[in-house]
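Example record

The entry below shows one chain as it appears in the dataset: sequence first, then structure tokens.
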Amino acid sequence: MEKIILTAQFAVSALLVASVLLQRRGAGSSAITGGSDVTFYKKRGAEKVLYWASIVFGGLFIALGIANLLI
């Protein structure tokens, strides 16, 4: 049982890292020059899926870590 939880935690951690790294950063070229680019937008499409996937994978990672401690 411990090996299953450890393997699942490893897989979820890899997916969590991938979902965080694939998200687009909000800083454009105006961040270099000090200008302010104050635009508000709504997450749509793949960006929204990656955002929610990172939240779900983070929750699963924490839950698996707690399960690993209890077993």
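Notes for this example: The chain has a mean pLDDT of 85. The helical segments are 2-21, 30-33, 46-70.
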